[in-house]
């Protein structure tokens, strides 16, 4: 073997190695491009699914039910002091509940109601029966709330006495429970229901029974 052949072999090996390295770099770049394209496609798919879900939610998401207090009666409302301060009251409220959705029915479960004055409960929690409403319908409930004396603060008793002396008592009717909407394609999950109805009733000392609602009672509904 000649000296020229011996010295030419390392050069050919070098060229082969350089050529092989270029192929490796090209394959690596192609793999990165494919992975990047796959990631972009996956992100686009997730985005489209999110947009579709949002559109379906806006289309099928039902409006909140509407609560309106249409009448009130007070049969007892007394404050006592001594070893403690208590309020004993018995009241009845007629409430109209309207399902404003024309596509979904509404189910109510584990309902309870109580009355507050000056930010404190003045009646025990009273359980209410479960309800079901067809789409676009209105139902009326008329629970009697009250019972034994409920402990309250001095401020609540003083405010209640002052309101009665003035002839206008501020009350808040609170309804809690669970609500679920059902439409043809979708059955929603149970949601917590919290209703607050602020009202002002005309009430004087020694006068009980049906009482006038002063102003327009307002109810807020959270689900």
From TrEMBL:
The chain crosses the membrane at residues 34-57. Keywords: Membrane, Transmembrane, Transmembrane helix. InterPro entries: LEA_2 (IPR004864), NDR1-like (IPR044839). The keyword Oxidoreductase does not apply. Residues 94-192 form the Late embryogenesis abundant protein LEA-2 subgroup domain. Its main location: membrane. GO terms for cellular component: plasma membrane; plasmodesma. GO terms for biological process: defense response to other organism. It is a single-pass membrane protein. It is found in: Membrane. This is Putative endopolygalacturonase D. It comes from Anthurium amnicola. The lineage of its organism: Eukaryota, Viridiplantae, Streptophyta, Embryophyta, Tracheophyta.
């Amino acid at each position: 073997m000649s000296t020229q052949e011996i010295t030419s072999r390392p050069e050919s090996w070098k060229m082969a190695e350089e050529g092989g390295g270029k192929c490796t770099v090209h394959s690596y770049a192609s793999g990165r491009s494919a992975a990047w394209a796959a990631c972009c496609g996956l992100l686009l798919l997730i985005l489209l699914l999110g947009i579709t879900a949002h559109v379906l939610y806006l289309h099928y998401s039902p409006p909140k039910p509407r609560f309106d207090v249409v009448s009130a009666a007070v049969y007892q409302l007394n404050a006592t002091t001594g070893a403690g301060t208590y309020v004993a009251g018995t009241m009845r409220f007629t409430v109209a509940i309207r399902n404003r959705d024309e596509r979904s029915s509404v189910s109510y479960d584990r309902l309870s109601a109580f009355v507050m004055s000056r930010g404190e409960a003045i009646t025990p929690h009273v359980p209410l029966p479960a309800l079901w409403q067809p789409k676009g319908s209105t139902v009326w409930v008329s629970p009697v709330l009250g019972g034994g004396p409920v402990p309250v603060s001095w401020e609540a008793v003083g405010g209640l006495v002052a309101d009665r002396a003035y002839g206008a008592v501020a009350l808040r009717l609170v309804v809690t429970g669970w609500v679920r909407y059902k439409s043809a394609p979708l059955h929603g999950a149970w949601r917590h229901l919290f209703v607050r109805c602020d009202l002002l009733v005309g009430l004087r000392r020694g006068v009980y029974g049906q009482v006038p609602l002063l102003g327009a009672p307002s109810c807020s509904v959270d689900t």
